[in-house]
Design brief:
InterPro entries: 4Fe4S_Fe-S-bd, HACL1-like, IorA, Pyrv_Fd/Flavodoxin_OxRdtase_N, THDP-binding, TPP_enzyme_TPP-bd, Transketo_C/PFOR_II. Its EC number is 1.2.7.8. Heterodimer of the IorA and IorB subunits. This is Indolepyruvate oxidoreductase subunit IorA. 34% of the residues lie in helices and 19% in strands. Helix 11 links the parallel strand 10 and strand 11. Helix 1 crosses helix 2, helix 11 packs across helix 14 and helix 15 packs across helix 19. The chain has 20 helices and 23 strands.
Length: 581
């Protein structure tokens, strides 16, 4: 009998890739998709896995592997699909050789994202089929089905998940890995070279394939009807299916595993058998709008929201008009996200705040520099945007306007898309100062390696791309590497560089404190020497607290020994009592 184990959704997807015979996987880390690649590493003897510098590259790597005749995949979060849009729209016309699946994790509720975009909308625009599971077991099984359908219909597939599916657990039945025979590569210019004449013909072909797939969707086992009482019928998919079953166990349900294209005949038949039809889908009314366009009467976003996650209680209230007796939890104290104790970004933001600077920000832990008490990040839009934003400000208002502005970006984000933005500054004769916060990792998503760390996803040592070398190769003369905790040098360098009418790059080369497993230095505060000036509190370190009398106390269970507070104290009230190792 096959083994059954409890798995996270992301872990189950990795298992599905292994069982499906996937040979190549490329990804860029992004919550909630990151762990898929990290779980795939356990199958490194059978599957090649890598971190790519960005999602566009990851998709192109997977396309290349597919063209060579093997099953391949790319993984990313929903905003990462925007970065991959260029190859996505074109590979839709090209089709596949070996099966090709792109895993995209949406984030209803904005748990770790800058927007709530719905991948199904992007997929419809790109004419890419979409499969969506409802639990870990389906995540594994549907992933295997996606490869079979990809090869059957010559179509790349998007495998859509959400935060709730990615990070919830379920029972999964393990099966053996089955590797299909590699498909031979056959040179086919008309299919694989997307010049206008070929693309026109391929567009006709994919429309034909999509119609075939839409017809097949009516009989696919991943789309199923669960007929019960016919007073209420619900069309749903993904995690909302779980809420429907919990809130309305007696309702009839059409559960969709393929959400693009939709099985029209199946939906029309189901709708004819129920009195009132509801469409339950998180985020955009993707299913609802299509069903209504076919003249089928249904209820959806009139009573349900386009924002955030759903719940069983929400459906009870909206559809059944029940007022669930919910025991409200007692109010917990607010716990807004903050930089970790000892984070090297804190000293940089403290210095910028002290200098009354503004910062164009980027995507990473350092976005937290926007909140009090540091309050220096003025903009955050998307990966790599900080440098381009600063450039746009200068071109709009002149070089004097940005004398009190800098761009801040992390090392992983710089390698992702910041390189292009800095190149644009050089090419277009900009000035301005860019601070690269190099903490030697992709910190926000859980400390993944990247092209500048010297280690691959599989843990192998590799060449570490030199960030200073890249900057100098572009022709930038003013490139400096500084310890983030060297406050006098950091302040001096920032003041000097923003005053120049040239591009400057300041790299604060200080590893993330969570990477250092050595014994930390220990500091203590002497209340009898404390003058209650508050200088040590200004950076907002969570290890610094006040005694009832207003003097300072250091929580040694949180302190990581960075020494920033000691450097700021002019009265020797903070003392190093133990050296680190």
């Amino acid at each position: 009998m096959a083994d059954k184990v409890i798995m996270l959704g992301n872990e189950a997807i990795a298992r599905g890739a292994y069982e499906a015979g996937v040979k190549v996987s490329s990804a860029y880390p992004g919550t909630p998709s990151t762990e898929i690649s990290e779980y795939l590493v356990q199958y490194r003897d059978d599957v090649y896995e890598e971190w790519a510098p960005n999602e566009k590259v990851a998709t192109e790597v997977a396309v290349g592997a597919s063209l060579s005749g093997v099953r391949a995949m790319a993984c990313m979060k929903h905003v990462g699909l925007n970065v991959a849009a260029d190859p996505l729209y074109s590979v839709s016309y090209m089709g596949v050789n070996g099966g090709l699946v792109i895993v995209v994790a949406d984030d209803p509720g904005l748990y770790s994202s800058q927007n709530e975009q719905d991948t199904r909308m992007v997929a419809r625009a790109a004419q890419i089929p979409v499969i969506e599971p409802s639990d870990s077991a389906e995540a594994k099984d549907y992933f295997k089905a996606a490869f079979e359908l990809s090869e059957q219909f010559d179509r790349p597939f998007i495998f859509r998940t959400t935060t709730r599916l990615a990070h919830s657990q379920g029972l999964v039945e393990l099966q053996e890995r089955v590797v299909p025979e590699d498909k031979p590569y056959v040179k086919n210019i008309q299919k694989n070279v997307m010049m206008p004449g070929n693309a026109k013909l391929r567009h006709v072909e994919i429309e034909k394939r999509n119609l075939e797939l839409a017809e097949a969707a009516n009989s696919l086992p991943i789309n199923r009807v669960e007929m019960n009482e016919t007073k209420i019928g619900v069309i749903t998919s993904g995690i909302p299916y779980q809420y429907v079953k919990e809130a309305m166990p007696e309702a009839s349900v059409l559960k969709l595993g393929m959400v693009n294209p939709l099985p029209r005949k199946m939906i029309e038949d189901f709708a004819s058998k129920v009195e009132t039809l509801y469409i339950v889908e998180e985020l955009d009314p993707v299913i609802e709008e299509q069903v209504k366009s076919w003249g089928i009467k249904c209820i959806g976003k009139e009573i349900l929201t386009v924002q955030g996650e759903y719940s069983a209680n929400m459906l009870r209230q909206a559809i059944l008009k029940e007022d669930p007796d919910i025991q409200e939890p007692s109010a917990a104290p607010g716990r807004p996200p903050i930089l970790c104790p000892g984070c090297p970004h804190r000293s940089v933001f403290y210095t910028l705040n002290r200098l009354k600077m503004h910062a164009a920000g980027d995507i990473g832990c350092y976005t937290l520099g926007a909140v009090a008490p540091l309050s220096v990040i003025d903009t955050t839009m998307c990966m790599g945007s900080s440098i381009s934003t600063l450039h746009g400000m200068e071109k709009a208002k002149g070089k004097d306007y940005i004398k009190n502005w800098v761009a801040v970006i992390g090392d992983s984000t710089f390698m992702h898309t910041g390189v292009n933005s800095l190149m644009n500054m050089v090419y277009n004769k900009a000035t301005g100062t860019v601070i690269i916060l190099d903490n030697s990792t992709t910190g926000m998503t859980g400390h993944q390696d990247h092209a500048a760390t010297g280690k691959t996803l599989q843990g192998d040592l590799t060449y570490a791309i030199s960030i200073p070398g890249i900057c100098k190769a572009m022709g930038i003369k003013n490139v400096y590497e500084i310890n983030a905790f060297d406050l006098p040098l950091l302040e001096k360098t920032i003041k000097e560089e923003v005053a120049k009418d040239e591009i400057s790059v300041i790299i604060t080369k200080t590893p993330c404190v969570l990477l250092d497993k050595r014994k930390k230095p220990l500091y203590t505060a002497h209340a009898d020497k404390c003058k209650k000036c508050g200088a040590c509190m200004k950076p907002g370190c969570p290890a610094m607290t006040k005694n009832p009398d207003g003097t300072i106390r250091i929580d040694d269970t949180m302190c990581t020994g960075c020494g920033l507070c000691k450097d700021l104290c002019k009265f020797d009230a903070i003392e190093l009592v133990r050296e680190g190792e």
